[in-house]
Input
Amino acid sequence: MKTEGERPPRFCNLHPIGTSEECGGCARAREHLEAWDEHAAQSDVIAAKAHDFERRRNRQLIENCPMHCAENSGMVEVLDDDGTERLKRCDHGVPRGVASNA
Ligand SMILES: [Zn+2]
Ligand SMILES: [Zn+2]
Output
């Protein structure tokens, strides 16, 4: 889940730069901001974890790849229709659309 929209203001509408007065609006605004920050931090952690998982999984695929694409950092040399060699992103012998749990 991603945090929607802008980071909320620290203070209420009446006190854009805050106030030394007691203000329920400012108090609520601060609570809202703290909750928002906490939520955003959690979203970041989840996103970072997912990203990390993807990266590790990808590295593992490259290391175990039957095409030995690790030499070309995940790319393999293929012969084009006209016979020229070019690099393409390796699918690591995993058929497209099939998730491997191995
Ligand atoms: Zn206020
Ligand atoms: Zn590969």
In short: The chain has one helix and two strands. Residues 62, 65, 67, 69, 90, 92 surround zinc ion (ligand 2) (CB under 6 Å).
